[in-house]
Design brief:
The chain is 25% helix and 46% strand. It contains five helices and nine strands. Strands 1-5-4-3-2-6-7-8 form an eight-stranded antiparallel barrel, surrounded by five helices. It is elongated and about 55 Å long.
C-alpha cells in the first residue's frame, strides 16, 4: 500500500515560490512521461485498476506499475501498488504496440494479465502526460514537487510518501502557511484528472 500526502498548489506562481524556498534542499529533478493501459475489455478500469509505464529523463529508466483501488481523503492518498523496472526500449515498444504486453517478460505485467483476466484482445493504450518532479530532502521528509502537463492544462502538486501521513501533512501545511503559499487538499489522482479531460 502506497500512502502519500497530496496538496494542490493553485498556480505557477505558488509552484515557483515553493521551488525557490526549497532550493537548498533540492536532490534531483525527474522529467517523467507517464503512459497508461487498460484491458481491451476494460478489465482493469472496471475494477479500479490501471497499468502504468513511467519513463524517466529521455528513457534512461522505465518503471511498470500496477495500481488499484486508489482513494484520496483529506489530502492523503492510499493506493495498492506493485512495480518493477523494465527495459526502456521494451517499454517504448509496448507504447507503440500494446499487444507486445501480452508476451513481455515482466512479473507485474503478468500479474495484471492473470489477476484481471485480460482477454484475447490484450491491452489498449490510453495515452498519457508529462510531469516534471523536483525532489527535496526536507526535515526528514522526501518532498516531491510536481508540474504536471496535460493536453488540456497544467497542474501543480506537492506529494510526500510517508508511514506517518498525518504528521507529514501537518508539517507541510505549516511550512506552506508560514511562507504564505496557498494550497488545497488534492481530491483526485493525476490519472483521474487525465481521464476526465479537464483540470479539477
Amino acid at each position: 500500500m502506497e500512502v502519500e500526502v497530496k496538496l494542490k498548489l493553485p498556480d505557477p506562481e505558488s509552484h515557483q515560490k515553493v521551488i525557490s524556498i526549497l532550493s537548498p534542499f533540492h536532490l534531483k529533478t525527474h522529467c517523467q512521461h507517464n503512459t497508461f493501459f487498460d484491458g481491451a475489455g476494460s478489465e482493469l478500469s472496471s475494477r479500479r485498476a490501471v497499468l502504468r509505464l513511467r519513463f524517466y529523463n529521455d528513457d534512461s529508466k522505465c518503471v511498470v506499475s500496477l495500481k488499484a483501488k486508489a482513494t484520496i481523503v483529506n489530502g492523503i492518498s492510499r493506493v495498492e501498488e506493485d512495480e518493477e523496472e523494465m527495459d526502456p526500449l521494451i517499454g517504448r515498444e509496448c507504447v507503440n504496440d500494446p499487444m507486445r504486453l501480452r508476451s513481455v517478460d515482466s512479473r507485474v505485467v503478468k500479474r495484471a494479465r492473470d489477476e484481471f483476466r485480460i482477454g484475447e484482445l490484450g491491452f489498449v493504450f490510453l495515452g498519457g502526460f508529462k510531469n516534471v518532479r523536483n525532489v527535496y530532502d526536507w526535515k526528514g521528509l522526501k518532498l516531491e514537487l510536481d508540474e504536471t502537463m496535460y493536453d488540456f492544462g497544467t497542474c501543480y502538486e506537492i506529494e510526500c510518501e510517508s508511514s506517518e501521513p498525518e504528521k507529514a501533512k501537518m508539517m507541510i501545511e505549516e511550512f506552506l502557511k508560514e511562507n504564505g503559499v496557498s494550497y488545497l487538499y488534492s481530491e483526485v489522482s493525476k490519472f483521474a484528472i487525465f481521464r476526465s479531460g479537464k483540470l479539477p
